[in-house]
Amino acid sequence: MKRRNEMQRRTFLQALSLGLAAPLALRMSRLATAAPGPRPLRLLFFYVPHGLPVEHFDPKGSADSFTLNMSGESVLAPLEPHKALVNVYRGLEIKDMSNHAAIRYTLTGNENAPLSIDRAIAKGLGTQAVSLGVVPFQTYFGSDMYLMKDATWIRPEPSPMAAADRLFPKTTGTMASDAEFRKLALGLTERELDAMAAGVKHLSREQSKLTVHLEAVRTLKAGGQSGNMCMGQPSLPTVEALRTSGANVTDAMNLPRVLDAQLELSAQALICGAARVITIQNLWATSDVNFSFMGVAKNHHDPVSHSWDAAGRAEFARVQKFFVQHVVDKLVRALQTPDALDTTAPGRTVLDNTLIYLFSEVSDGANHHSNKDTVWLSGKPYVSYLPAVTIGGGAGAIKTGKLFDFNNRSHGDLLFTLSEIAGVPQNTFGSSIAEVKA
Description:
2 domains
């Protein structure tokens, strides 16, 4: 403790000698001697309604060698380049459910649970879960629309602008937040950076969060990615374009822009550490939103998800693939940036320390079942199951690049396993799936 205090005092005085404000110098001195913590795991839950057409979704291959790109309309094809960090959980089910009301079970395990898994994990971590919506409703929000729960059912925030203002509030005064600190740190000159780096050269990389921070500042100044360290307000061009245009976020024709804005916001919140647990609810069960904005002038629930013929099923796959493609474009790629909050091994990406859970409430929109079941399509049998996919390294706590096959496994077991990985097991959801964990 005495040595740490001496180092803090030394770093503080060095910062003051550079002419830095006392609050900035104090924060830097504390960072210089901060002990490294565990890898900073983040979780993002991504709901898409009405299931997935199994013939355009089910991977081909074995547990360790499979493909996600089987045809032009393969729903998971956008994830193929990232397959090393993708898991598909084949065979999970919500037993004895036969309609879209299963939406209320997908994150709760059962409708009477007091908390959905995102809220339970967040509470266990001592933080707040963020609930975002791509939900172009007008006034009504009924029973088959709710996904998240915290004692009462939660209506997600449909406005990316409102969510951004809450996650990244503007700060005033001295050192009100990490964002303010980073904003001031970004103003350091190269000479000041050199002097500060020299002042902490006696500390090892593992011991010095300040060293990691100074390197990130240098990268940013050299034209690297803006937002890695959330220097002040992160760059949110899609959110701000939506704000400037005054677009109605509840207008179905704006759904792609709202989706991209919520994903962009989520990516920056995870990168910064402004949020550790986020849920994005896209539409809702029995959603009748028309998808003419992408050339499918039909309602998502009926007839799109209710299709049985080959042409209709391909159209259903195309619509569901739309969501996966946007996740890749706006979230997965953004998270492939060095994780400035991970002091255990510089160079890891935020995606390495994140787990994105993509799921739905039914196995297939046409059969309305949430269990593992056989469906006949064009005279051929297919085994349909509850869609469940994870993307990301999960801070090293989960095996990746795997196709898992389950028999008689509830989706609640996967929810429990995710909570175990987060370090706050919630045994009300199910039991552990040992083979999933690293």
